[in-house]
């Protein structure tokens, strides 16, 4: 009886360590999934400032494209005035 009690006392700290390790292994996927979902949500949400910056970039690109097309039309009119209106 004494030997069993001594063995239980010696093995108890080791078993506690195993329980913590098992608990860590079991909860690890949940913690990782939470981080992945949180990261995805953060990446998918945009602030008003980010939306405004994106809108300004799009407008600038559109304006540059229109200006480029206008310069091409003017250049074409200088080369071939008969093709231009007015």
Plain-language structure description:
The chain is rod-shaped, with a radius of gyration of 35 Å. The chain contains two helices and no strands. The protein has two domains: 45 residues; 41 residues. By secondary structure, the protein is mainly α. Keywords: Signal.
Question: Unreliable runs, pLDDT <50, ≥5 residues?
Answer: none
Which outline best applies? rod-shaped
Q: If you average the pLDDT, what whole number results?
A: 78
What count of domains describes the coordinates? 2
Terminal-residue CA separation: 114 Å
**Sheet/helix structural class:** mainly alpha
Q: Which helices and strands occur, and which strands form pairs?
A:
Layout: H1 2-44, H2 48-79
Features:
mainly alpha; signal; 2 domains; 86 residues; rod-shaped; 87% helix; Lipoprotein
Brief overview, please?
The protein has 86 residues and is mainly α.
């Amino acid at each position: 009886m004494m030997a069993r009690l001594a063995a239980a006392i010696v093995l108890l700290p080791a078993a506690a360590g195993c329980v913590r390790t098992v608990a860590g292994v079991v909860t690890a996927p949940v913690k990782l999934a939470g981080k992945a979902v949180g990261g995805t949500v953060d990446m998918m949400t945009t602030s008003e400032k980010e939306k405004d910056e994106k809108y300004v970039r799009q407008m600038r690109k559109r304006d540059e494209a229109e200006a480029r097309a206008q310069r091409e039309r003017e250049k074409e009119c200088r080369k071939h005035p008969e093709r231009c209106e007015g």
